[in-house]
Design goal:
- There is one protein chain.
- This protein is α+β, with helices and mostly antiparallel strands.
- The chain has two domains: 196 residues; 149 residues, 2-Layer Sandwich (Alpha-Beta Plaits).
- It is built from 17 helices and seven strands.
- The chain has a five-stranded mixed sheet with strand order 2-3-1-6-7, sandwiched between helices. The protein has a two-stranded antiparallel sheet with strand order 4-5.
- Helix 17 links the parallel strand 6 and strand 7.
- Helix 10 packs antiparallel against helix 12.
- It is elongated and about 90 Å long.
- The termini are far apart.
- Bound molecules: guanosine-5'-triphosphate (GTP).
- Guanosine-5'-triphosphate (GTP) binds next to strand 1, helix 14 and helix 15.
- Guanosine-5'-triphosphate binds next to strand 1, helix 14 and helix 15.
- Its EC number is 2.7.7.65.
- It holds the Pfam family GGDEF.
- It comes from Oceanimonas baumannii.
């Protein structure tokens, strides 16, 4: 009894001795890794780079970027399916060379059936680019077909014939191919869990000894390594895509969206909210040329950044804001009437007027004012006409002495 207790104590002691440094090391690596990763994510000069959550899930991406990414994924997905169909069917030649006739007779048919099952995904990939659900349905269908192919082909070797390397390596090959898709980490993890779970279940089903003799653990380890590599490459591609997207849709000075993206968002809000009014506010800084001429372009830039920040403070996350032109800003307020829009515009006007901007060169501060034109739209409004009306209202505000808000006639 005492011996058993002594052994248990020794075992627990050894495990604790082992666990404490491992836990501490893991914590250290995770903390420093996350900090380094985060600083890497925030490496653009405005300090407003990508956030970790944007790598994690696409629910943190804007609607427009989701569409852009899905379009990109759909093209890669189409190429992936084409390669898989050609590869799976073309491998028949290798099988003919390496397999005995009995296995070959079964496997060439399975390969052709798998290729045929993947073929409908080619036209479907055109639908994927329109809808995220279609994309995931197609991806899981693809995985399902390939994992069944893996199961059936391994099952055909249950008689003890050595399994050719091409069949053993198939799940790793699949994970490598899937790394071409720019998926967020959450989706990549789901894919990895599905592949790992199915492959291990297949292995265990075909040979239950694989659990006790360590073969399953060996397989699990390698699958995890390949999955991590896949997720890493996918996240890298997602980052590249997000960077390019931001560069092409954001104003580099104020980080507000540019006119092209704003117009897309405006069309989207109009289509998706039938029966709901929305307000457009067009702002223009007063006598901005004079600020540039008297205080320099650096001061002009500072004013633009400060006004953009004030826009964010006043209108909040529900508003869609853009730098529309040089010193012009546009705000779209979904679900608001003209009166509400006028009140918001007035609040902004007062806020900008009451917050003097300091010269970045330390040369005192100046008061900035702005003028605004406000117009209300409906789901069936002509957008170009609305923009013209906002522009005319702004022009009226300028004619009325500037530093005021004017509703469209
Ligand atoms: N500093 C800086 N100036 C800019 C930028 N973009 C445009 N501008 C300047 O903005 C000024 C716009 O001047 P105008 O269109 O004459 O308008 P304004 O002086 O504001 O006069 P009103 O609109 O009639 O009140 C021009 O001098 C442009 O060079 C920018 O990114 N930075």
């Amino acid at each position: 009894m005492a011996k058993i207790r002594w052994r248990t104590g020794t075992a627990l002691g050894s495990v604790s001795l082992f666990l404490i440094p491992v836990t501490a090391a893991t914590r250290f690596v995770m903390t420093t890794g996350c900090t380094a990763f985060h600083s890497l994510c925030l490496n653009n000069k405005e300090g407003k780079g990508l956030e970790l959550k944007e790598y994690w899930s696409d629910s943190y991406h804007s609607g427009d970027f989701k569409l852009t990414r899905i379009g990109f994924v759909a093209i890669r997905f189409r190429w992936l399916i084409t390669l898989l169909i050609i590869g799976i069917a073309g491998w028949i030649a290798v099988d003919w060379w390496v397999l005995d006739p009995a296995h070959f007779q079964l496997l060439w048919k399975i390969r052709l059936i798998t290729g045929a099952m993947l073929t409908p995904l080619l036209p479907l990939s055109y639908l994927c680019k329109l809808n995220r659900r279609w994309m995931f349905a197609s991806l899981y269908f693809l995985l399902g077909v390939l994992l069944i192919f893996n199961l059936v082909s391994l099952w055909s070797f249950r008689d003890g014939t050595p399994i050719p390397i091409g069949y053993i390596a198939f799940p790793y090959f699949l994970l490598t191919l899937l790394s071409v898709l720019p998926l967020p980490v959450k989706s990549g993890l789901r894919v990895a869990v599905m592949v790992i779970g199915c492959v291990l279940a297949t292995d265990y089903w075909l040979d239950s000894r694989s659990l006790s003799n360590g073969a399953l653990l060996d397989r699990l380890w390698l699958l995890i390594c390949f999955s991590l590599a896949m997720i890493w490459v996918q996240a890298g591609q997602l980052r590249m895509l997000l960077d390019l997207y931001r560069e092409s849709t954001r104003d580099p000075l104020t980080r507000l969206m540019n006119r092209r993206l704003f117009m897309g968002q405006l069309r989207q809000v109009q289509q998706e909210n039938p029966g709901q009014p929305f307000t457009l506010i067009l702002f223009d800084l007063d006598r901005f040329k004079r600020i540039n001429d008297v205080h320099g372009h650096l001061m002009g830039d500072e004013v633009l950044v400060r006004v953009a920040n004030t826009l964010g403070d006043i209108f909040g996350p529900d508003a869609i804001m853009a730098r529309y032109g040089g010193e012009e800003f546009m705000v779209l307020l979904p679900g608001t009437t003209l009166e509400q829009g006028m009140r918001k515009a007035e609040t902004l006007r007062l806020a900008v007027e009451s917050q003097p901007v300091e010269n970045p060169l330390g040369d005192g501060e100046i008061t900035v004012t702005l003028s605004a034109g406000v117009v209300q739209g409906q789901h069936d409004s002509d957008l170009q006409q609305l923009l013209n009306q906002a522009d005319e209202a702004l022009y009226d505000a300028k004619r009325n002495g500037r530093n005021c808000v004017q509703a469209a006639a």
